Prior knowledge:
The chain has three helices and 22 strands. By secondary structure, it is mostly beta strands. It has helices at residues 128-149, 215-221, 230-233, and strands at 6-9, 18-19, 30-35, 53-57, 70-73, 79-80, 92-96, 100-105, 113-118, 158-164, 170-175, 178-181, 186-191, 198-199, 202-203, 227-228, 243-245, 255-256, 260-261, 271-276, 280-285, 293-298.
Amino acid sequence: VHVGDKVSFVPTGFHTVNLPKKGGGPVPFLSPDGTATGLADAAGASYWFNGQPTLGFTPALVTKPGFGKSFTYNASKQVQSGLPLSNKPKPMTVSFTKAGSFTYFCDLHPGMKGTVKVVAKSKKVPSAKGDAAALKAQLARDKKIAVALGKDKPASGTVDVGSAGAYGVEVFAFFPRTVTVPTGTTLKFQMSKSSYEAHTATTGPGDPEKAPTSFLGKLAASFQAPSIDPAATYPSDPPPTPASLTPQSHGNGFWNSGVIDTDGKSPPPAANAVTFTAPGTYEFYCLIHPFMHGTVKVQ
């Protein structure tokens, strides 16, 4: 774009737009906001993570939302959209007043970033037709990557929670979607190595997407609340030894990997494992992305 041009950042999902000041980068989207106390499972037993920090959205992402507002930007001061918490968030418009190349981030997905190149008014910039052609080519490239990722076949004994490839393309699904194992099998639920996402692998009562008032539905809903339920973020059982899972675990068949990701700077691990010690069908979901659904059949 030219110096003085405006760019509209249109919200199309649960993302932020962070144009940091010079030398800055994405901010953590979760921050400690208290201490877990008095939390018990469905059987009345205290969870192991009582006494550990509770987590909520970093205040900067919720206190001064930028969607629906206009800003000027020259890299001397951050421009932050915050979370798109309203029902129909409006675009954030930014006027770029200085020439240069400026990187912007999504604070929820730090690997998701873009660049605005600002040049003098005397220089040429791509036309709208050129931009459309570039977008079409990018989408075609990414679609091919996504199709290949959909054929992900992890090693025996593992379930990939999402599949990630080049250019930040990721498929949100469990791989394999259905796995059949004998009683006594330990499965490792793991993040794809190049993922920029965070997921959970969670089983228990209810479909968090279709039954929002169910046990899992309430845990998933807390990811949209100012403070997240610790039972959603922490592993249901103390690491590192794999828990034994039965339909009676925690009084209702609950097991949660806790949040897992591949970011070496964040506390969550990249995987968690569980041992299936009783036959049955166990439905798994990601509490962050409840449409992600996998099934483990234990015989």
